[in-house]
Amino acid sequence: MTLLSVENLRVTFDTETGPVQAVRGVSFSLGRERLGIVGESGSGKTMTGRSVLRLIRPPGRIEADAMVFDGQDLMRLPEPQMRALRGRRIAMVMQDPKFSLNPVMKVGAQLTEGLRQRDRMSAKEARTKALAALEAVQIRDPERVMEAWPHELSGGMGQRVMIAMMLIPEPDLLIADEPTSALDVTVQAEVLSILDNLVKTRGMGLIFISHDLRLVSRFCDRVLVMYKGRVVEELAARDLMQARHPYTQGLLNCLPRIGGPRTPLPALDRSAAWAKE
Amino acid sequence: MTHGAFPMTPFLKQTGKTLFSLALTFLGLLIVTFIIARVVPVDPVTAILGERATGEQIAEMRAKLGLDDPIWKQFGIYLWDVIHFDLGTSIRTREPVLEEVGRYFPATLELSTLATIFGVLFGVPAGVLGATRPGSVFDQFTRLFGLIGYSVPVFWLSLIGLLLFYGQLGWVGGPGRLDSMYDMMYDMKVPAVTHMILIDTALAGEWDMWRNAVSHIILPAGILAWLSMAYISRMTRSFMMNEMGQEYITTARVKGMPEGRVIWVHGLRNTMVPLITVIALSYAYLLEGAVLTETIFAWPGLGRYITDALLIGDMPAVLGGTIVVGAVYIGLNMLSDILYRLADPRAR
Amino acid sequence: MTWNEWLLDPNPKSRAQSRAGQAWLQWLRFRRNHLAMAGLFITLALVLAAIFAPWIAPHDPIAQSLADRLQPPLTPGHLMGTDDFGRDILSRILYGSRITLYIVGLVILTAPVAGLIIGTVAGYFGGWVDAVLMRITDIFLAFPKLILALALVAVLGKGMENAVLAIALTSWPPYARVARAETLTVRNSDYIAAVRLQGAGATRIIWGHVMPMCLPSVIIRVTLDMAGIILTAAGLGFLGLGVQPPDPEWGVMISAGRKFLFEQWWVATMPGLAIFLVSLGFNLMGDGLRDVLDPKGAR
């Protein structure tokens, strides 16, 4: 069953020196599965994720032939209905909790904000739900975390709060934009397994955006490889190591391997032709 | 997680530091005013005794004023006096300067407080709206309006305001705090509680007089409010632009919050943190900006007190007034510092 | 190759070409800002008026003519009317632009220089030098500016030079702050270390290598402060503490026109318009310059 299908998505920024296309005709579809999007920085993967939520701010523009989520075309949805989808049915976890949590709002207030404002829930009920959500992301002392300020949390703790906050309304689709890149390596695995668990048990669709090929191949079912705003290759995650496209192969060759040859890693060969295919 | 056992301790420690640095600043202020007082070409002895004093009288007076002591001792005495709230005696009126300043200051305070309230009430929303619609007609208009506020000489604007709204249109009261008819009644009927005319008349239930006072204060306060608004709206706009580009704003939108809440709750709460300093600064600036306005509106405030004293060479009054304004300035700085740390959980 | 091509060449052949190209690009960006161009135009008009005052002013700015006193604007021969001594207001305003420019010039030649020296020295040496100098800066910053200027003029005596001195003495601290901040960022850079290894002394390093790096941000501040200097100078003149009559300083002229405000409004209005226009011009230009030179600090 298709949850989301995107056809010919383009994101354009009107700058002083003329329009710049950040995403150029990306199409993909997604069921209740885990889709990985990989690419270098600037390849348009973040923009693709944010386009699904229609959260590109001017001077950026989103265009697409169709962007259908659960039978509704997101491109034609008026803003109030789009807002009703955000949070409740489509959610997003961002890269660095240091920046993605509001610094002057207590964690508890941010967790319950959606329930209180959007779903008009009573303070007590919202609090109970928030505490349960914190427990679900394996926070041991949820009462205390509710009263904490974001800057008092460590990176891993902050990202768990972020995941809890986004998963409270049990969305159908979660977009995770480099959710572990800002974290210590030791915490990364923990946060990932929490995320993995929740996605599996709740049966939601996941778009996992990352620059880390190995992570994506381990964590996702299917992978899109993006380069300069285009999808250059789409393949099953377990086949990633056998990728055919020279760009993907190039990316793979740049990964250091334990026990591999001790020659310098090759520089990535970028061909302008790939972006035009 | 770093939960301190006593979360208030670092806050108090920081406040102590601020207090210490402000005490140093105040000491610096006194050194500067002392130096100014010592190099003043108006000889204090002649100023008191007049031109025809005998040599004997002058020597006696010099000894009495302590002018023969070494300079550090003179400064010590000066410091001691100021700490004990003795700012000397006005040459013009022969009254203690502090007492006089106490009488004049509330009028200035009333004027600049009212102006700041207007400035914040209009400046903050204007800045926020400008930042959320950059380049819109509204944004362009507030920018231009603000730039004009920055560029206009306040004393000239005051004169033009008087000419237009008092002279031509008759919408507001003229110079002074009250019409002369009420001026006479004021001392008899209104007990001086706060020395602020709007509050005192309201407390006394003299509503006719209150309305008259409003008609007098509205023009000078409005003009000062324009200056304050120019500054506050511009800073609000720039802070807000910065906040609206932050990632937590996206988070709020992802959560499905309506744009109004994103702007006025998430964005503005964060903007308020640096804005506190700006508002305090503009308040302090108005306290002294009132100098020129007060001269034109015959407003019996501190600025007028200082300029009047200046024109007749009454240095104790000038320096006393300067010290008081400086102290208020320093106090406002400290207040904004504390408020800043209360508003920003990261600074606590 | 045309000039334009030479300037916009992406591969400049010399440092001068690259610098000229940068300046040209900045000028192109500045030119697109209509308000900033208006500001530049006003500023140029001020400079031209100051230079050519004797030739374009229809009358002697000081010569009195009691028969012509208090003529309204648009009187033949007196476009802006005359004041209470029968002096032509337009001529006085044109000559007054010389005084205004002179004051602004003196202040921007002194205060930023002092601030630059104090800031770079404090930033370069650090330690107690920094602590002491910055404490002094803070003290001056904590002072109410206009009132300190008033007190200084009271001590030094009335007059234009003393007004300039008072304004300069009260306006250097922000420059010191800016210069110190810039110095701190370059102090530990490798090229400063290289100069030091070649045996250059502190004076030489500060003068030849640190100060040039601080100049751009100080210059931006100066442009933005010029309007403030004009307003303060006019305020001092208005209070009778700056330039003395009969010199046609704009603040003094407003002060003189105050007596006839309700009957002969133009006497006070015209010089005020001049102050307003010129300071608006400086503000617009400063805003535009800042947007071009320092896009990050746009506020």
TrEMBL record, chain A:
Subcellular location: Cell inner membrane
Chief localisation class: membrane
GO molecular function list: ATP binding; ATP hydrolysis activity
Domain of life: Bacteria
ABC transporter domain mapped to chain residues: 4-253
Annotated Gene Ontology cellular component terms: plasma membrane
Keyword presence, Nucleotide-binding: yes
A Pfam family assignment: ABC_tran
GO BP of this protein: transmembrane transport
InterPro entries in the cross-refs: AAA+_ATPase, ABC_Ni/Peptide_Import, ABC_transporter-like_ATP-bd, P-loop_NTPase
Keyword terms: ATP-binding, Cell membrane, Membrane, Nucleotide-binding, Transport
Membrane topology type: Peripheral membrane protein
PANTHER family recorded: DIPEPTIDE TRANSPORT ATP-BINDING PROTEIN DPPD (PTHR43297:SF2), OLIGOPEPTIDE TRANSPORT ATP-BINDING PROTEIN APPD (PTHR43297)
Family the entry assigns: Belongs to the ABC transporter superfamily.
Protein name: ATP-binding cassette domain-containing protein
The organism of origin for this protein: Stagnihabitans tardus
From TrEMBL, chain C:
Membrane-protein topology: Multi-pass membrane protein
GO cellular component: plasma membrane
Entry keywords, A to Z: Cell membrane, Membrane, Peptide transport, Protein transport, Transmembrane, Transmembrane helix, Transport
InterPro entries: ABC_transport_permease (IPR053385), BP-dependent_transpt_permease (IPR050366), MetI-like (IPR000515), MetI-like_sf (IPR035906), OppC_N (IPR025966)
GO biological process: peptide transport; protein transport; transmembrane transport
Main location: membrane
Matching PROSITE patterns: ABC_TM1
Stretches that traverse the bilayer: 35-57, 99-127, 139-157, 218-244, 264-286
Location(s) in or outside the cell: Cell membrane
Ranges of residues in domain ABC transmembrane type-1: 97-286
Family membership noted in the UniProt record: Belongs to the binding-protein-dependent transport system permease family. OppBC subfamily.
NCBIfam families, per database record: Opp2C
This protein's name: ABC transporter permease subunit
Gene source species: Stagnihabitans tardus
